[in-house]
Amino acid sequence: MLDPVTGFEYPKDWVTKCQSPEKLPLVERGLAVLTASGAVLVRGFTTGTTAAAACKAAVLSLGSPKTRVCIQIPCGLSVEVPVESSFGKASCRKFAGDYPADMTAGLKFSAEATPQDKGIELIPGDGIGRFSRNTPRYPKGSAAISPPARDCINASIREALDRIGLSGVKVSLHVPEGAEVAKKTLNTRVGVEGGISILGTTGLVEPWDDHLTESVLGRIAGTERPVLTTGRIGLRFSRLLFPDREVILAGGKIGEALAAAHGEVVLAGLPALILKFINPHLLEGTGFGTVEELAGSPEFGAILQHNLARFKMQYPLVRVILVDRQGSILGGSP
What is the pLDDT of residues 21-35, one digit of tens each? Predict the structure, then answer.
């Protein structure tokens, strides 16, 4: 059995001891994960998927009310999302699945659609954060909507337009409690103020908090030459860079992952989590608010090599490879 989201092939003994065989179809469809203990945990939907559902439902409801919409999410899967909609207005609540610490669980997303002559106009409204300073990817004042999430929203709106036969629409998107919820997140640290971020690299939220599960630790311990990575972008490019090795998503708990690993180990991915693990005080005195901003500066090369040299002394068998969001290698240790 293959996980269509990560490409991980579940061992046969995991399937054999599955505690909820009736949920295995969810695992096969990528809507849940099977753990080494036999438990089935349901994936949730990202803020990007939720926003796309609300926007699509609003447009479709210009024709007739809808209670569910189908969204093609960034990882390529199609999911059905419950909504409430009528007369161009719609709402959708974020489904957290079995993710225990989702601060946006149950958060309401609202959208309103107004026909126009042609084209799609998405208007981010109340509760959606905006950048308070220029960053390498987002100009000051722009809405905190990631490219994969925005693409998903726009594609969903286009599908709805085609279905009801309109040539254009203006859609306003709001998260009524977004500003309040955002106070509990790290948004202000990355320069986002006034609301939550609309995100979603795959469209799905993994059903565990920011820690390594027994399943993942078992995979790391059982692999001779593991490539450990911290997120979906790192996972994608690590598989391209190391096609003959097993690439394992370890998330933010790099120390636990390295403790379980043995042999020749590669730690690969975007710079932020990896460099903050190597040096928690990396940004102090640099004048930069995020690692991404630091990575775009002339000083980055020297700072990177200094910290990688220190890391090599502590972890002599671990090779570090840092990539940007396009997959280009920013630097690394020998």
Answer: 999 999 999 999 888
CATH 3.90.190.20 fits 214-332, yes or no: no
Nearest CA-CA partner of 100 in 18, 209, 184: 209
Residues 6+ apart with CB under 8 A from 231: 201, 249, 251, 269, 270, 273
| Inter-residue contact 181 to 198 (CB < 8 Å) | no
Instruction: Residue 267: name the closest of 248, 282, 280, 281 by CA.
Output: 248
Token representation of residue 28: 């096969």
Mean pLDDT (the chain, rounded): 91
Domain boundaries, the chain: 12-42, 45-205, 214-332
CA dist., res. 49 & res. 146, Å (int): 12
Tokens representing 67?
């209670």
Q: Which of 39-43, 131-135, 213-217, 330-334 has the lowest mean pLDDT?
A: 213-217
Q: What is the pLDDT averaged over residues 225-233? A: 88
C-alpha 115/C-alpha 30 separation (Å) is 35
CATH number for the domain formed by residue range(s) 45-205 = 3.30.2110.10
3-state SS, 67-93, equals CEEEEECCCCCEEEEECEEECCEEEEE
Q: How many other β-carbons are positioned within 10 Å of the β-carbon of residue 266?
A: 22
Smallest CA-to-CA distance from 145 within 189, 101, 175, 107 is with 175
Query: What pLDDT shows up at residue 275?
Result: 94
Say what the pTM is.
0.81
What pLDDT is recorded for position 95?
97
